[in-house]
Design goal:
- The structure is a single chain.
- This protein is of the alpha/beta class and 225 residues long.
- The strands form three sheets. It has a five-stranded parallel sheet, sandwiched between helices. Strands 6-7-8-9 form a four-stranded antiparallel sheet, with helices on one face.
- A hairpin with a 3-residue loop joins β10 and β11.
- The chain is elongated.
Length: 225
Amino acid sequence: MRLLLIEDEQSLREITARRLRDEGYSVDTCDNGEDGQTYIELTNYDAVILDIMLPRRDGLTVLRQIRAQKITTPVLLLTARDAIEDRVSGLDAGADDYLVKPFSFAELSARIRVLLRRQTVDQADSVLEIADLRMDLASRTVQRGDRDIQLTQREFTLLEVLLRYQGIVLTREKIAQHIYDYGFEGGSNVIDVYIRYLRRKVDQDGSTPLIHTVRGAGYVLREES
């Protein structure tokens, strides 16, 4: 999952981004509202963490403008102000949630997971499934039938993207947008390598293949009769 963190306090931005990457997210960062809005307009993020007090363009202005453009990316507001009117203003501007500074990283992480779950249509809990393949986002575990599958962070993120978009053919570029940030310098063949790793673990032991190559287009996760 690809996140954008817009925060002008350098130490907080760097620490938060590092810890989010440690949890397997791909994270872009910027330190002002003007650049942040450009990032949101040009990139398909899974969620945005947006500070309200920003130079060059405040967070509420950014939020109102992207919502006016019909950009529906989930937004978590960060604010140092805990007044009721400030929270109401943020929610009225289009925020999906808010978090008051100072905050614990555990709470931030939990709120991000909630936002990402809301993106999945008709997803009642944190479990993604297809056939006998089951991914639990809360416990970060994967099973195929009765078999536990051990995945690296990158493999887990790749499988999550395939599960969320199951039945839809994803190009290598589309997959890369979700699992890498702007600092990524590898070619599209890196996606092929990780797909190969994932297939060895998910489709092994004679299991019915779920990860399919669509020649000239990309990859898709689906059941085939």
